[in-house]
């Protein structure tokens, strides 16, 4: 009996949360920086803002550190309450802000009609608008996102690398992206201008973290962020070569943007807790083969007005960072 009680006590200790300290990442990665040299006249070929509505994150367990002995920890998060009008408003605001910042940095920005009316773009087809993509997130995770283009641009174009789709549906999108890239490259050469392509992916479940921008006077209960690795700016130079600046650390904004709630049922929580304790006891006693995981469901409800403000601010901060790295390359 004493051995059993000791085993249970050890199992309980193993289930205690352990703080994890993340290392600071470089905010951006630049490839082909020399290709941006001398480019001061540009056109905007694409500007797309994606909104993650669902994410399923899976992490292989490691003993009691994850609270799931030998199993998998899974969290399903869903965002509700964001309307098409809200997403369009965020996208239009982000585009206008990007063009304004680009102009303020010394670039001459062409009107959209100059590019889209050119003969090189005649056979280029727009992606669906809005564009729904099953995206492959980090290893072991996946999600669903909807992409919007600004009202000022007549077509939603993607180029290779703008998204990481999963499933057969992404094959057709990849083919269209390749065709769009070729057309935009031909335009850059024909018009002797740089063509800028931007994509931002906005996540709703990014936890608040030190250093995130916070709106003054607001109680922080969540954070919106422009996602790392899935957000970037690509400059196609007049010689056809590219400079790509990729976001490598989330650009987060804190504030009252969404209401978060645990959507897991009480029965699920009790069952998983009991299974995990049993798994811990079995591991301590030397029994193998028990692989219990943990599943949690979270619901995020957007607050109209606040959500748009936070998402637009995150996009603006990202634009400031990307243009701040692009301009010195001229």
List keywords for this structure.
330 residues, alpha+beta, 14-stranded mixed sheet, 6 helices, 14 strands, globular
Short description:
The protein has 330 residues and is of the alpha+beta class. It is built from 6 helices and 14 strands. Strands 1, 2, 3, 4, 5, 6, 7, 8, 9, 10, 11, 12, 13 and 14 form a 14-stranded mixed β-sheet that branches.
H and E string: HEEEHEHEEHEEEEEEEHEH
User: Between the first and last Cα atoms, what is the distance in angstroms?
Assistant: 74 Å
Number of strands: 14
Helix and strand content put the structural class at alpha+beta
Uncertain spans: 7-23, 60-71, 278-292
β-strand amount: 25-35%
> How would you classify the quaternary structure?
single chain
Give the number of domains. Answer: 1
Describe the structure.
With 330 residues, this protein is of the alpha+beta class. It has one domain (2-15, 27-329). 31% of the residues lie in helices and 30% in strands. It has helices at residues 2-14, 84-104, 112-116, 169-191, 266-284, 306-326, and strands at 28-31, 41-60, 70-80, 108-109, 131-136, 141-148, 194-203, 213-214, 222-226, 232-236, 242-247, 251-255, 258-262, 292-302. Strands 1, 2, 3, 4, 5, 6, 7, 8, 9, 10, 11, 12, 13 and 14 form a 14-stranded mixed β-sheet that branches. A hairpin with a 4-residue loop joins strand 5 (131-136) and strand 6 (141-148). Helix 1 packs across helix 5 (266-284) and helix 2 (84-104) packs parallel to helix 6 (306-326). It is globular, with a radius of gyration of 23 Å. It starts with a helix and ends with a helix. Mean pLDDT is 79; it is low at 7-23, 60-71 and 278-292.
């Amino acid at each position: 009996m004493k051995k059993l009680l000791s085993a249970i006590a050890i199992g309980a200790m193993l289930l205690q949360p352990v703080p994890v300290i993340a290392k600071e990442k470089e905010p951006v990665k630049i490839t082909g920086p020399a290709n941006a040299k001398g480019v001061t006249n540009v056109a905007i070929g694409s500007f797309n803002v994606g909104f993650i509505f669902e994410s399923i994150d899976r992490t292989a367990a490691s003993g009691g550190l994850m609270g799931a002995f030998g199993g998998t920890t899974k969290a399903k998060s869903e965002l509700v309450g964001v309307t098409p009008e809200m997403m369009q408003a965020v996208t239009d605001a982000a585009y206008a802000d990007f063009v304004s910042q680009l102009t303020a940095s010394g670039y001459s920005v062409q009107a959209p009609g100059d590019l889209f009316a050119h003969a090189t773009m005649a056979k280029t087809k727009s992606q669906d608008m809005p564009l729904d993509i099953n995206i492959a997130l980090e290893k072991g995770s996946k999600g669903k996102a909807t992409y919007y283009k600004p009202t000022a641009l007549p077509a939603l174009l993607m180029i290779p690398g703008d998204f990481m789709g999963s499933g057969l549906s992404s094959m057709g999108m990849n083919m269209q992206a390749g065709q769009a890239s070729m057309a935009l490259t031909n335009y850059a050469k024909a018009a002797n201008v740089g063509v800028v392509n931007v994509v931002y992916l906005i996540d709703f479940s990014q936890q608040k973290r030190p250093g995130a921008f916070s709106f003054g006077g607001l109680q922080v209960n969540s954070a919106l962020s422009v996602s790392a690795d899935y957000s970037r700016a690509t400059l196609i130079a007049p010689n056809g070569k590219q400079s790509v600046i990729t976001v490598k650390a989330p650009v987060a904004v804190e504030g009252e943007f969404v209401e978060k709630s645990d959507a897991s049922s009480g029965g699920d929580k009790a069952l998983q807790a009991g299974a995990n304790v049993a798994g811990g006891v079995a591991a301590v006693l030397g029994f193998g083969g028990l692989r219990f995981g943990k599943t949690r469901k979270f619901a995020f409800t957007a607050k109209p007005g606040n959500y748009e403000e936070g998402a637009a601010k995150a996009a603006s901060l990202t634009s400031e960072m990307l243009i701040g790295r692009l301009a010195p390359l001229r």
